[in-house]
Amino acid sequence: MNSFLKSCTALTVALAFSGQAIAQVKELGKGEGQVNIVAWPGYIERGETDKNYDWVTSFEKNTGCKVNIKTANTSDEMVALMNEGGFDLVTASGDASLRLVAGKRVQPINTDLIASWNTVDDRLKDAPWFTVGGVHYGVPYQWGPNVLMYNTEVFKEAPKSWNVVFEEMTLPDDKSNKGRVQAYDGPIHIADAANYLMFHKPELGIKDPYELTEDQYKAALDLLRVQRTLVGRYWHDAAIQVDDFQNEGVVASGSWPYQVNTLVAAKKPVASTIPQEGVTGWADTTMLAADAAHPNCAYMWMEHSLSPKVQGDVSAWFGSLPV
Asked: From CA 107, how far away is CA 267, in angstroms rounded?
């Protein structure tokens, strides 16, 4: 991207964030009786899927705040729901969090009201995907890798490279990968292509898969156009991807550890790996709606979400990393 475009981008971001309200909740009162949360699948469990994983029931009992969950499958869906209103919290990924801040859909967090804030990993406390001008617009929730999920009956050994989803080839079962692989259905997947090129085409000079020059961006798009001829279906719904691996003949795809765990628990021939090129990742933040109707319950939930028990349970269930 040339310097003019960089300047325009910087100006756009600056204008978007200028004039942000910095008002914060100053003190907590009695819970309002409920809290409405937009969350990724598998992020908030009450024991209905597996009785051993329930970090909602105890919260409701201890606070009197009923937890209402609206599942969203993409960052775009999360942003749309928060724009509609009616929700108190959202577990936003990095490709949504700054959009929510710029759109004034979330409000600053008073970390003094969250007792467990000091337990958060120092690498995440001031992360740029939810901290703007030194102001925190959320509380870290979980983070993790985008792994390569594969069928162990097709791949007797873990694939060593992401090339199985980016280049046409014959797989170990002597069948083509065409129509048998998937890729994530979202602009953030461009970074996965850039990460692949960073390893295989060092002459492009890619240093950060999330920050590309115009030539690097074009190269990533060219690779994605090749991948388009291989992909049977792009995925964005975790449950549908799980079904595709079970019933639709999909044998390799970028994925989240959650789908891997779900399929392994169902005793399906699936495993995951981190190939030689490395992986991209994600980091999700619990953010408070600008017009939250239940801020006290919301703050109580944010504190609860940082407890060692919840962090451990979410990590074990989703396959992510605690904050």
From this structure: 43
